[in-house]
């Protein structure tokens, strides 16, 4: 029994020695590869430095304002506009595919460039939210008061008065908005 034990012990120690020698060989190979890769990276760094030095322009030779082309900026601006227009067309065609046929034609009419331009101008001038709100409030209260007076005093209510109340309220609402913007606008100093 002791023979088996001694034999297996000798076999294990032989394997240990064999593993240690393999480990040393592997470690030496790793060290060699590391040295080679370090030499290669140093070579690459030197090559990159020489390329940079050949192609580099000093600050004295190049000033930012002199070499810039103003046409490049406008070209990119034009291409940016074209990209936006193309993107808009694709989005609209994709959205219209999901609509019924009658709504597709209405969408084409509404999103026509001329119609959109008129709509944008009118939204900034005619269809002011403050004007519409003022006109609605003024027309409602004025019509209620006038209707009460017509019933109470016995004269006939004229429906054109509603339109006049609305127009008057629209101008009053717009005037209130303009005055509020004038007084709440932050003043910037010139300095």
Structure commentary:
With 191 residues, the protein is mostly helical. Helix content is 83%, strand content 0%. The protein has 7 helices and no strands. It has helices spanning 2-55, 64-67, 70-97, 101-110, 113-125, 129-153, 160-184.
Layout of helices and strands, plus pairs?
Elements: H1 2-55, H2 64-67, H3 70-97, H4 101-110, H5 113-125, H6 129-153, H7 160-184
Short account of what is shown:
The protein is an all-alpha fold and 191 residues long. It has helices spanning 2-55, 64-67, 70-97, 101-110, 113-125, 129-153, 160-184.
Annotation keywords:
191 residues; mainly alpha; disordered N terminus
SSE sequence, one letter per element? HHHHHHH
* Helix fraction bin: over 70%
Instruction: Report the uncertain regions.
Output: 1-5
Distance between the termini: 103 Å
- Individual helix count: 7
Radius of gyration from CA coordinates: 43 Å
Q: Give the DSSP E fraction (strand runs of 2 or more residues).
A: under 5%
Oligomeric state as shown: single chain
Number of strand segments: 0
Largest sheet report: none
Overall geometry comes to elongated
SS-based class: mainly alpha
Mean pLDDT: 79
């Amino acid at each position: 029994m002791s023979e088996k034990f001694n034999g297996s012990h000798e076999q294990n120690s032989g394997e240990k020695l064999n593993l240690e020698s393999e480990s040393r060989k592997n470690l030496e190979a790793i060290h060699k590869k590391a040295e080679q890769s370090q030499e290669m990276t140093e070579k690459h760094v030197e090559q990159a430095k020489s390329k940079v030095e050949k192609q580099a322009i000093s600050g004295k030779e190049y000033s930012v304002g002199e070499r810039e082309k103003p046409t490049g900026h406008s070209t990119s601006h034009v291409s940016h506009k074209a990209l936006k227009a193309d993107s808009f067309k694709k989005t609209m065609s994709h959205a219209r595919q999901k609509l019924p046929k009658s709504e597709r034609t209405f969408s084409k009419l509404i999103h026509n460039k001329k119609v959109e331009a008129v709509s944008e101008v009118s939204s900034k001038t005619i269809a002011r939210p403050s004007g519409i709100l003022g006109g609605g409030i003024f027309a409602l209260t004025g019509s209620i008061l006038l209707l009460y007076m017509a019933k109470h005093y016995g004269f006939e209510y004229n429906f054109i008065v509603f339109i006049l109340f609305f127009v008057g309220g629209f101008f009053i609402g717009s005037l209130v908005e303009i005055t509020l913007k004038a007084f709440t606008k932050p003043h910037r100093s010139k300095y």
